[in-house]
UniProtKB/TrEMBL annotation:
Residue ranges of domain Tyrosine-protein kinase G-rich in the record: 142-194
GO cellular component: plasma membrane
Entry GO MF terms: protein tyrosine kinase activity
Membrane topology: Multi-pass membrane protein
Keyword annotations from UniProtKB, A to Z: Cell membrane, Membrane, Transmembrane, Transmembrane helix
Subcellular location: Cell membrane
Residues of the Polysaccharide chain length determinant N-terminal domain: 3-93
Gene source species: Jeotgalibacillus proteolyticus
Protein name (record): Capsular biosynthesis protein
InterPro entries, per database record: Bact_polysacc_biosynth/exp, GNVR, LPS_length_determ_N
Superkingdom: Bacteria
Transmembrane regions: 21-40, 174-195
Signal sequence residues: none
Family per record: Belongs to the CpsC/CapA family.
Amino acid sequence: MEETISLKELFNTLKKRMAMIITITLLAVSISALVSYFLITPVYQSTTQLLVNQEQTEQPNLNVSDIQANLQLINTYNVIIKSARILDKVSDEMDGQFTAGQLNEKITVQTERDSQVVNLSVQDPDPYVAADIANKTAAVFQEDVVGLMSVDNVNVLTPAVVTPSQSPVSPQPFLNMAIALVVGLMVGVGVAFLLEYLDNTIKTEQDIEKTLDLPILGVIGQITDLPSGDISPGRSQATEVRSERYGS
C-alpha cells in the first residue's frame, strides 16, 4: 500500500510541535546574540587608497599604453605590499609591536575594478592601530617601490582615518541573529518531522489502516463514566436479558 502525506497532515504535525519549534528558534537567536555581543571581540577596519599613475616623465599627456602598463603593474604591487621586505620595515617603525607575519594577516590588498586605485585595508580590534598600520604600510611602500621598480608612480590618494562613529566590520549581530533565526527554524521543523516519523504509536483509526493494512469495520466510541445510581439498573437489565436467552 503506497503511503501519501497530505498538506493537512504536515500542517497538523507542525501545529502539534509548534511550541518545540519556537523554543529551538528562540534558543538559537539568543545564543547568537550572546556570542555576538559579549563573546566575540569587535574588529575595526581602516583603508588607505593608493593611486598608481604614470611614471613622472616629460610627456605632458597620458596615453593608452601608459595606463595599460600601470594596470599590469598593479598586480605586482599587490604582492610587493605584503612582502616581508615592506612589512619588516613597517614592523620596525611600529617598534616591533607586530611581526611581519602578524601584519600580513591583518592587511588585505584589493584593486578597484578597471581602475588604477589600490585599496590597502587593515583589520584590528583597535581602530587607531588599524589606521596607523595602513598609513605606515602605504608610506613604506611608496618610498621603497622607487628603488624596487625604478619608477615613481605611486601616490597616497586617501589616508586612513578614524571617525567617531566608526562601526566594527565584525561581528555583525543583526546579521548573525537573522541567520540563527533561519537555521533555528529549519532545525526545529526538521526535529518536528523526525519525531513524528519515529512516533509509531497508534492514535486514530487511520493509523490502524496504515499499520495493519486492514479495513476498519467499526469504531467503539469513548465511554464516559455514569453516575453511581445508573449502574445498578443497567446491570440488572443485562442480567435479565442473559437469563431469558439461556433459559435460566
